[in-house]
Design goal:
Elements lengths: L13 H20 L21 H10 L1 H11 L2 E5 L3 H13 L1 H4 L4 E5 L9 H13 L14 H15 L5 E4 L2 H6 L4 H4 L17 E4 L2
Parallel strand pairs: 1-2, 2-3, 3-4
Helix pairs in contact: 2-3, 4-6, 4-7, 6-7
């Protein structure tokens, strides 16, 4: 008796594999839209993976084999969502893009918000942030992050990430929560983009949204 071969995703055309991945992402976002927000775990350190909106849908598939890792990587990094109040995850995705610069080119949708967390940047994070900012050509004063001013760090985080995601098409800024609660420090936070190098451009940018 001849046993029929077990169907495998690897055996179908790449176009169909991509269509399946896209559908999984679509269904995942649809489910998340109607679900309550998941509280931030305070017993585990956030990583760059926490900023990828499509990681929940495709992370497992990406880890299954090299083929699906290559196939899903552009989708995994297509949508990045960071928060100035979650600076550890913010600096982690910057560090990841610093090590693997080609991945930043896959980011098409970048959302910068002010969702709350309890983490703060360490001295090593600040040192890395300054180093990466200078590598990217940001106009940083020598002592701009020497103080404990977290607002200044938030602003530099935004500048560094903007320099990395050169192919982004949509930028969403939702900073009103912070600005409402800390009106006195709003000028410092809103100074982001003032440090960007003269050569900075987002040639693929098509849309900017600001949410109040």
């Amino acid at each position: 008796m001849v046993t029929a071969p077990t169907p495998s995703l690897l055996a179908i055309p790449v176009e169909i594999q991509l269509a399946i991945c896209a559908k999984v992402v679509e269904l995942s976002h649809h489910e998340c839209a109607g679900a309550p927000a998941t509280p931030t775990r305070l017993d585990s350190a956030p990583t760059w993976k926490d900023t990828l909106e499509n990681f929940a849908a495709l992370g497992g598939l990406a880890r299954s084999c090299k083929t699906f890792e290559r196939l899903t990587t552009p989708m995994l990094f297509e949508r990045v969502k960071v928060s100035i109040f979650r600076p550890i995850a913010f600096v982690q995705i910057i560090r990841h893009f610093s090590r693997f610069g080609h991945l930043a080119g896959f980011v098409k949708h970048l959302a910068i918000g002010s969702a709350w967390d309890t983490s703060t940047l360490s001295a090593s994070h600040v040192r890395f942030l300054l180093q990466e900012g200078r590598r990217l050509g940001l106009r940083l004063l020598p002592d701009c992050l020497d103080s404990s001013d977290q607002v200044e760090s938030m602003s530099v985080l935004i500048d560094v990430l903007l320099c990395q995601v050169h192919a982004v098409r949509k930028l969403v800024l939702s900073l009103s929560q912070y600005l409402y609660l800390h009106e006195e420090s709003a000028p410092s936070l809103l100074s982001y983009a003032a440090r960007l190098p003269d050569s900075f451009t987002l040639a693929s940018l098509r849309c900017i949204e600001t949410h109040s």
